[in-house]
Amino acid sequence: MPDKSSLILEIRDMMAECNLFNNLAAAELLSAAGYFSLNKIPKGKIIFKEGDAGTFMGIINSGSVAVYKANAEEKNVQIATLPKGQSFGEMAVLDGERRSAMCATASECVLLLLSKDSLEKMMQENPKVAAKVIRAIAVSLSRRLRIAAGRLVSS
Hints:
Elements: H1 4-17, H2 26-33, E1 37-41, E2 46-48, E3 56-62, E4 65-70, E5 76-82, E6 87-88, H3 90-95, E7 102-105, E8 109-115, H4 116-125, H5 127-154
Antiparallel strand pairs: 1-8, 2-7, 3-6, 3-8, 4-5, 4-7
Helix pairs in contact: 1-2, 4-5
């Protein structure tokens, strides 16, 4: 088992590979990395269900995550497959609402996780870095909303 400092360096390196954090300088990545955890999840495992409390968000370091939404008949319909580098679960962490979809591993995954409590702790202890992390999440969500709106208009 790696010690805490080597784990933080590993998480920092993973964050650096993710486009989500392009706006963070090297020192800021290192600082933010201490608030994330690393989790390896086998294929086919439910990460969270629609309606669950939003206690964390994830970033896919390897593998892929399937996103499902319940239809009118309450059957889960796959609406997306998220690849390496994508984030998920951010909305519930930011707004405190329940999960809007279910996420499950489509393959074995290594995920960077940021809990709502860790984000709040980062805001208290390192507000400048937390602001950059939150802004990066907001920009990512904005891009996805624009893409979804574009798809609706072109349908």
